[in-house]
Each structure stands twice: as structure tokens, then as C-alpha cells.
Amino acid sequence: MERKLDFIGAMKLEIERLRLNLSAAERDRALLSIGIDPATRNPNLLLDESYMGRLCRVTNSLALLGQASIEDKITAAIGLETIDDNVIDFWNITGIGESCSGGMCEVRAETEGPGRASSMVSSAVASQSVLFCSQCEKKACSVCCAGRGALLLSSFSSRDVTNYNGVSLQGGSSHGSQVDISTNNSATLDGVICKRCCHEIVLDALILDYVRVLISLRRSARADSAARKALKQVVGHSSRNCEGHQSSDCQKAVEVLRQLLKGEESLAEFPFASFLHSVETATGSAPLLSLLAPFDSGSQHLYWRAPPNTTYVEFVIVLGSLSDVSGVIMLVSPCGYSMADAPSVQIWASNKIHKEERSCIGKWDVQSLIASSSDFYGPENLGKKDKVPRHIKFAFTNPVRCRIIWITLRLQRPGSNSLNFERDFNLLSLNENPFSQLNRRASFGGGPVQSEPCLHAKRILVVGSPVTKEMGLMLQQGSDQIKLKNWLERAPQLNRFKVPIEAERLTDNDLVLEQYLSPASPLLAGFRLDAFSAIKPRVTHSPSPDVNNWDTSMTFLEDRHISPAVLYIQVSALQESHNMVTVAEYRLPEAKAGTAMYFDFPRQIQTRRITFKLLGDVAAFADDPAEQDDSDFRAPPLAVGLSLSNRIKLYYNADPYEQGKWASLSAV
């Protein structure tokens, strides 16, 4: 017979899942493969609603206390390294199958299953460490001790802990209480408390907080991985290779870029500009976006290459804003050019995406441009960082105001290059092959073997100046005329008037609102929603164990930025077929509590019943501690500030002159 799983057991399974770095979908597939319904292992379904609300409040208090404790610890260190040599960590969560070490332990709180090495404390320490509970003064092993977070809760009073089920306890902190760790509690924080002396809700809060920490660490790791992958797509290598840039090198790069631009701006640097579509890239080449990467980023030896036997490529660059483009600068690859791979370049410009509406700016033959200089042939000397790199500038006759630029590179097909007897053929030459070309490019690896000709480039710089400031001045000069013209041409403005409601009903923790209307109600044009008073708490869990290792993260993003909490409101209406049909779904913006927000329906609707349902990350919101009333013993599982009660008003559109003064009293 299958053993029924409790809340602690389900949370331990979740901890193992997070330690194995498995996603929720991978966990569900693994459970289904062995015939277990994932819903039976959901910790949220194993607690009643009232207890879940109190547990969330205690866990939120634990997170605030843990954050205040670590801040005090860092402040007390006065800049020195903090050392955590406690045998018991903040949570001290026992793993699956972990039990009391026996021996001198008098608590015996964890006696189920065979003992194994703890993931939090080594087996040697677990067997040798004998601690004394600060409450009952009994000997306890490390497995039978609660985490140090329980001591923080025991230093404060909370109705959720002291009065739950009528059991009097020492500990807890309400979500709305002020967190102030005083030095009077420093002695007690260095002790331990056994699990027998801890209330069940305190132990549940510790394991819930630990799961939140693991989820946060997994999100941060995924964000770092995504950031490294995105950076590799731009610069072509891992971020570890570009962490050693010195300030002097950056200053030299800025000076070199200033010499290249000659007083103008670079308009096509990623991420402010990008390619409209992808271009096929050779294996082992720098990524396509490296062509638009900032000037001082990436390796000097990497450059973009087209696949072999590709004789034509087209780059479509979308600028960040409307700009006056005066030219394009193409940095030559470190391998240099040869007579075989010097392309012909053609440039178009337009404000629209359609090729039929673009205008040709010019066409240049790179081979003729570099014929007078031997510096463009062969590998480049990359030793001097303050030297202007080899480049070719395609200057426009006049600046072109555009948003999209097309750049095509084309190689001459093999055999199409006619023989020039004056330049290539010399009867007096002592070479064995008098028809061989004098200028040959070395291979990409630097060897003497000639490689097949291919299209390649190091960087593309679009030179010019944005026109936003100029356009702003022009709009400011003609703003008066535009306002007058718009006022004369606009249609009569319709006002919003409130639609009377016969009855309404709230369900699902006040997150669903049903409103019943009269058959004589006018066509509904939309609804007004007053912004919620709930907040997104910045501290959602206790600090992770490596809170001081700031260099471990690449993004330095908080949880609220990595996985932002977003709310949606879904509107459904009863139609003639007696079925509820979804009218629209709106994403709610962040706004100050009570701010009126108006949402128009895609079309006017006639209905007898309309339903509003709040969706999204509702669990990520909490009530403002300053507005909480401790006299209310009931602790709902979700924030009261998300209630739809008295927040939604339906409206219809009508001409205020036709409605009269009496109807204007019902305007919303």
C-alpha cells in the first residue's frame, strides 16, 4: 500500500528536484513514467487554506528577519570577511531518509528511515556534534535541531505562531511588525533549539523559505546562463575571456573610435540596432551580431565569415531611430584581403521595409579602392591597440535620412575576372608560373596555404547623426498650429457613463467577480479598474548562503527583475447560446493604489452577465505592512489588496450633451 505523503515529505521531494536542477515539467514526466500522479505530490494541495495563509505570513516574517540579520552581520564585520562556522545553518533541512544519529541525543525528533549522510552537515560532524537546546536544555544531535532561523522567530511575538490552535509558543513575527535585531538577542542567536520545542508552523516556515531560496538560486543560474549565451552570440566567446579589460585599453579604444568617426556618431551598435534577418555564417566564424558589436568588445582575432562557395550576402541593418547617415565604415578582417576575395559593395537606404521603395546610394569596388595601398593585404599586426585599424569608408555624396540600410557584398565568380596583361602577366618574370597572382592571402590559421576565397568582415559602422533632437525642435515650432488643426478636425468627444449593476458575486478568494445587468442596459464599451493596493515585496526569502559572493553572478539581477510578477484580468460575457465567451484579456500595468485605469472592449457588447477573473502571479503580491490590521486573526492565503470588491465599474459611451446634466452625475 502506498504511503500517504505529507507536506514536509512533498517539500523534501521538491528540494531534491531543485538540487538536481530539474524543471517542473521534467519532474512531472518522471513521476508519470513510474505511474504517480504529480498532483498527489503537490505541496500546495496538502494544506488547508487557513493554515496556508498563516504559514505564508510566518515565512514572510522569517525572510525579513533573515535579511535584517545578515545585514547586521555584514555591518558588524566592518568590511572584513564574515566567517560562518556554525554547525547548524539557517534552515537545517534534513534530507530524505536522514534520521537522528542516536547515541547521546535525547531529543530523537527525526527517527524515521535509515540514517545517511546529510547534505547540509557532513556525517562526521553530525555524529560528533552534541548540542544543547536553549529551551528544554536537552542534548540534541545536529539532525534533531531546527535551523538558526527558528531562533530569530523565537525572539519576536506573533499571533500566527503563539495562538495557532490555542498552543502558546515563544517565537514568530507578524508580516507587518517592524524588524529590528537588537544586540540583546545576540546570545540567544548563537544557541540552538531542538525540533521538539519548535511549533509545527515554524518548521514548515523554515522548509518553505529554503525552497524559495533554491528556486531563486535556480532562476539566477538560468539568467546567468542566458546572459552568457547571449553575449557569446554577440562577441563570439564566453564572458570569462573579456573580464580582464583594463581602463587604459578602454580609453585607447575610445580614442581610436573617435578618430574613425571624425566627430560623427556610430548609429548601428548592438543592441540599439540589429539585423532585420539572419545571414548564413561559416562554421567557426564569429557570430553575425559581432559585425554590430561595440567597437572595443570581442576578440581581436575573431571576425565574421560567410560559408565557402558563397558569393553574395545581404545585410539589412535597422537603426535605433531615424538618422542622417553620411557613410558606412567596414573594418577589414585581421586576415586581410587578396585579389580573389575583395568584394564589390552596394548600399541602399530607406525608411520602409519594402525593397521596392528603397533608393540606391552607391556601388564601390573594394579591389580598386585598396589597389593603391598594400596595407590591406595579408595579416594585420594587432600589437598596437592605439592604432586605427584597417578600414574602408564608403562615403555618401549627401547625408541620407533613413531608418533601414541594405549592404550587399558580392564576389566575382571564378573565371569571370578577365586577365589584365599589363598588371598580371610579365614575360620577363623569373617565376615558374608567370600567370600566378602576386598578392595572395594566407589561410585563416596564419599558414602559408592559400584558402578558398570567401566573404568576410570584422565590423560594420554606420556613421552619421540621429535626427531626434532636430525633429523635436521642428515639432515644437509647429505645435500650436497642429493643436489647433487637431481640435478643429476631431470628432465630438464621448464621455463614459456608469452602467447600473443589479447584483454581483465574489468567488475564489475575491479574485473572480460576476456582475449581473438589466436587460435594458446599454451596450458595454469597457470597464474602469482601480489599481490594487497590494505590493510586490522586495524581500521574498532569506539570503542565500553565498550572499557575499557578488562575483558569482553575471547579471546582478534581483528576483523581481528575473521573473517579474505580472497580473492579467480576463473578461468573459454570457452570450445568447448561454455560454461564457472570453471578450478580452488585459495586462495590468504597475500603478499607484487607487489609480483609475480604463480598458475598452474590442467591440461593444450586450450581455446579462459579465465575469472578471484576476490571473497571473497573484501569489507574488502581499499586503502593505503599514495597512495590515493585526486584530484580524484570519490570514488569507492571498493578499487582500488583490480583491476585486468595489474596484470595477462598467461604462458605456455617450454624448454628454444628449444625456443632459442629470446623467453626468454617473460619469466614471
From TrEMBL:
The entry's protein name is Phosphoinositide phosphatase SAC9
Supply the Pfam families for this chain: SAC9_C, SAC9_C8D, SAC9_GBDL_2nd
Residues forming the SAC9 C-terminal domain are 493-668
Q: Where is the SAC9 C8D domain?
A: 94-205
Question: Start and end of every SAC9 second GBDL domain?
Answer: 264-465
